[in-house]
Amino acid sequence: MLLQRLSEYAERATDELPAEYHRAKVIDRVLLLAEDGRSAELEDRRKPAKLRDQALIEHVPHVQRSGTKVPPYLLVDTAEFVLGVPKVNGRNAPTDKDRAEAQRRHAAYRELALRWADTAPHDPAAAAVRTFLTAPDATWPATEDVGHKEMIALRVGTRWLHTLPSVQRLWAEIVRERKGGGEDRSGLCLVCGTHGALLTTIPEPVKKGSVPTAGGSNEGQLVSINSTAQGRNGIQQLTNTPICHRCGSRAMASLNHLLSSRTQCRRFKDHGAFVWWTRRPGEDPDLVTTLNDQPDEATIARLIGSIQDQPTHRAVSGVDTDAFYGLTIGLNNARIVVRDWLDVPVADVKRTLGLWFSQHGIHEGWKGRIRHIPVWLMALCCGRWNGERYVRDSAPVGLETELLFAALHGSRLPARVLPMLMQRIHADRHIDAPRVALIRLALNRLDECRKAEMPDALDDADNHPVYLWGRMFAVLEEIQRSAIPDLNTSLRDKYFSVAATAPRATMVQLLRNANAHLKRLGRDNRGAMTALDSRLREFMGRVPRTGLPQHLSVLEQCDFVMGYYHQRQADFEAIQERKSADGSTDENAHGDNTPPHEAAE
Question: Cα dihedral angle (566, 572, 573, 576), rounded to 10 degrees?
Answer without folding.
Answer: 180
